[in-house]
Specification:
It is built from four helices and six strands; from the N terminus they run βββαββαβαα. It is of the alpha/beta class. It has a single domain, classed as Transcription Regulator spoIIAA (2-Layer Sandwich), CATH 3.30.750. The strands form two sheets. Strands 1-2-4-6 form a four-stranded mixed sheet, covered by helices on one side. Strands 3-5 form a two-stranded parallel sheet. The longest helix has 16 residues. The radius of gyration is 12 Å and the shape is globular.
Length: 97
């Protein structure tokens, strides 16, 4: 996690699955601070499961509810495939905050 006054960047690293999702959920929900935007960094994720998609949706929803702009990094093929498989692409990417 890093950020400036205007944008909070959340770097999920190489693995986002059930083994580490609790950390992100406990430390990021709700997203708070002085940010006007939140950036989800998913470019190097290699392991990504359905719990990760659920977490992304919760974080996305939290940001949108706070009227923050949502910015997506380049998304790894593994993350994109999981998101597509669950039919969440249109929810997460088509209506960016």
């Amino acid at each position: 996690m890093s950020g400036s006054e205007s944008e909070l960047t959340i770097d999920f690293g190489k693995k986002l699955d059930l083994s580490n999702i609790k950390f992100f959920a406990e430390n990021l929900l709700p997203i708070t601070g002085n940010e006007s935007a939140v950036k989800f960094e998913l470019s190097i994720v290699e392991k990504f499961d359905t719990s990760a998609v659920q977490l992304l949706y919760m974080l996305y929803k939290s940001a949108v509810d706070q009227q923050l702009k949502v910015v997506w990094s380049d998304i790894s093929s593994q993350a994109k495939e999981a998101i597509d498989t669950l039919g969440m692409s249109n929810i997460l990417f088509d209506s960016e905050g």
